[in-house]
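Standup notes
- DV: blocked on the single-chain target, sequence here:
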Amino acid sequence: MVWPDGNDENKGGFPDSAPKDLIEEGTSGKLTQPKLSTVAGLQLTKTVDMEWKGGNGGTREWTVFELNPADGNNMNRDGPVDNIDTYGIIVINSPVAREAIMSPAHDDHAQIWINGEKWYNNSRWTGAAETVLHNVTVDLKKGANVVVYRVGESGGSAYMNLHFDDDTHDAVKIYPDKSNDQKSFFDEIDGFLDVEPVGKLKTTWADLKQN
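- DV (later): unblocked, structure below
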């Protein structure tokens, strides 16, 4: 997963932070949460770091990190473990347009965007790091699909996991794969990234698409 190399901190709990676009805050409007989930937005992370206020984490560079899916505190890093927000990015290269079943686990509140659209918005934690409450049908296009997964933690366990149905995992390729830093990540994916017209961003016509 690609994410900032530290969490956004001390926001007073996710009920307070959930309505805020912390990507927009941290980039002075150069990126937003929906735009980050597009190829054009992802490309901007090569030159745009997160610049949260000093009390909220400060400067965060983008890096690659492999989560332990069984760890109920896999969001925690150096710094506070409560009142944090984490953003993770994956890219799914699909050979054809397809429907996929997305199964997120999270503690606490989670939001997920794919290709500029918000597909998931759930304030209830799932109970354990590998426990899923909702299976969500999402649309993947042919080629690169950018997924942004945000989880905000108020207190206690802090985890995020994401799984897709077996047919999707068999058919697509998910990145990061072998990369361990931002440069090697883009080396892996640059060959199949489509060029998107500037400003062409799908509208988030539904805040929640969920079974």
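- Follow-up: Residues 197-211 have pLDDT under 50 and may be disordered.
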